[in-house]
Amino acid sequence: MAVKTAGVRLEERWREILSVHARTMCEIDRALHPHGLGASDFEVLDILATEEPEQGSQCRVQNLVGRVHLSQSALSRLIARLEKDGLVERTMCAEDRRGVYVALTHGGRALHAEVLPLQRAVLARMLGDDEAPRSEGA
Hints:
- Strands 1-3-2 form a 3-stranded antiparallel sheet.
- It is globular and about 60 Å long.
- By secondary structure, the chain is mainly α.
- It contains 5 helices and 3 strands.
């Protein structure tokens, strides 16, 4: 029996993390597809929902870049699609004309609330969280 080096164990653990991530993203995509969303779409809606403590709050697109694992151009395309679907609205930053704010619309907030339990159920199932509240989002 060969003894695994620390480097090999680390590499195996990294590949396991990537595999769990890929499988979980696919499951979230499947669960949300009937609602017209993918996993990355949901992540943007979820961040905006949790970043907006009161109606009318906005989040700079630049603040989303580091939190959503997409390139800035891919995130811009995703936000444009969400805007076209009426889920978010974009406005220019008055202080910095290069800055863009994005906020959930009423429709975006409603859809987020509708699909949140689906996404959380996938996370609980895929990540083995047996202590997840059964009524979350209900």
